[in-house]
Every structure is written in C-alpha cells, then in structure tokens.
C-alpha cells in the first residue's frame, strides 16, 4: 500500500462523515496521480520565473480534475488546487507527501462532501405548467320570468358544472366568463316580460405542474 493510499485510509478512519469508500479511493488516486506527475515533470516546465504556474501546470491540474470529476459526477473548482501546486513548486524540492495530503484533502472536501443530487419531479410547489384538460361550455336558462340576472345565472351555471364533474375540491380554473341575456314580450297585450340568460366559460382541470430538481423530489 503506497503512502497516498494510506493517507486516504487515514482520512476515512478519522473523518467517517466525509463520504463513501469509493469517493475516498478516487481522491487518493487523484492526489497520487497529480503529485507524481508534478515530481516527474519537474519545476522548470510548471512554474515561471515570477513564481506563477505555467499553462502546462494548469493543464495538468485541469486534466486530473477532469478525470476525477468524471469518475464521481461533480463539478470541481480548480483555484484551490492551483494554489497548492504553486505553493509546492515555490520550494527547492517538491514534497510529494505534503502535496498528496493537501490535494487529497481538497478533493475529499470538494467531492466527497458534495451536495446531494436531487431527483427531477413535477410538484404543485413549482407552479403550474399547463392544464391537461380544457373545455368551452355554454348554458342557458331558457325563457323565464324576471327576478334574475345574467351574473347570477353564470354563478349558478359554474357551480352546477363543477358539481357535475366533481371538481369542487380539486384543482381547476374557470376563465373567459361571458354572460348575456335575451328579452321578449309575450301575452295578448305583450305585457309579460321574459328573459333567457346565457353563460359561456372556459373550464380547465387536471393541472400539470412544472418540473425541477429539488429536495421535494428526493435524493438520487
């Protein structure tokens, strides 16, 4: 067992809250890979005369992190890893053990303690996307005497429609409400007024809610 593998095992024992064994193993492999390549490559191609990391050094980190991120399925920030490498390259000799400790710790903190991935689901809390069902409905009272009005008929018509479809306590929406009336005079002297009240509505039911990744949906 090499030193970096021992390091990952040590971290797993002393910090059992960090994550699964597979994640810890990936972090240890990452630290071993990148610090070993740094020592093999040498300082001359990894750091400038001003002490800054070269493009080759940053590419080395990006490649190793890309492999690690691909293995565990998370996005990783590179700045902290670049700072560790720059610090290691500032000395006369590269301390592979210290490099590995710091790199593995960063990898564990960024990857093994990553935020959970939430499932994608549809939920009322996310808001309405659309209604699955819609119908344009019309009604009329037929000719009748006075003492009523179009607005009152629309209210009664809507309530009757909702009751007939058992939608009273279920999600629904009534839009585009339009009421009107017809009038006529009947009787021999045409002294009797009659009215025919009309109502037209658009009824929407069976909501389809928006989808998103959220703790409401549960963890993958």
Let me know the average pLDDT.
Answer: 80
User: Helix count?
Assistant: 6
Helix content: 40-55%
Q: What's the domain count?
A: 2
User: What proportion strand?
Assistant: 15-25%
Signal peptide: 1-21
Keywords: Signal
Structural write-up:
- There is one protein chain.
- Helices cover 43% and strands 24% of the residues.
- It has helices spanning 3-14, 21-41, 55-72, 79-90, 96-112, 150-164; strands at residues 120-122, 128-140, 172-186, 192-209, 211-213.
- A hairpin with a 5-residue loop joins strand 3 (172-186) and strand 4.
- With 220 residues, the protein is of the alpha+beta class.
- Helix 1 runs antiparallel to helix 2, helix 1 packs across helix 5 and helix 2 (21-41) runs antiparallel to helix 3 (55-72).
- It folds into two domains: 3-112, no CATH class; 122-212.
- The strands form two sheets. The chain has a three-stranded antiparallel β-sheet with strand order 2-4-3, covered by helices on one side. Strands 1-5 form a two-stranded antiparallel sheet.
- Residues 1-21 form the signal peptide.
- Keywords: Signal.
């Amino acid at each position: 067992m090499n030193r970096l593998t021992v390091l990952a095992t040590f971290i797993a024992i002393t910090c059992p809250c960090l994550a699964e064994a597979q994640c810890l193993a990936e972090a240890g492999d990452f630290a071993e890979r990148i610090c070993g390549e740094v020592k093999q490559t040498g300082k001359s191609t990894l750091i400038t005369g001003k002490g800054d990391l070269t493009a080759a050094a940053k590419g080395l980190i990006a490649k190793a992190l890309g492999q690690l991120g691909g293995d565990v399925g998370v996005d990783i920030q590179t700045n902290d890893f670049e700072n560790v490498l720059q610090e290691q390259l500032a000395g006369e000799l590269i301390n592979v053990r210290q490099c590995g400790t710091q790199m593995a710790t960063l990898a564990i903190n960024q990857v093994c303690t990553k935020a959970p991935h939430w499932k994608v689901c549809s939920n009322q809390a996310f808001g309405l996307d659309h209604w699955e069902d819609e119908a344009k409905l019309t009604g009329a009272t037929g000719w009748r005497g006075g003492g009523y009005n179009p607005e009152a008929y629309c209210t009664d018509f809507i309530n009757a429609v909702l009751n007939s479809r058992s939608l009273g306590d279920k999600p629904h929406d009534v839009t585009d409400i339009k009421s009107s009336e017809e009038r006529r005079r009947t009787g021999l002297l045409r002294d009797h007024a009659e009215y025919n009240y009309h109502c037209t509505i658009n009824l929407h039911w069976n909501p389809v809610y928006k989808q998103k990744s959220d703790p409401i949906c549960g963890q993958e």
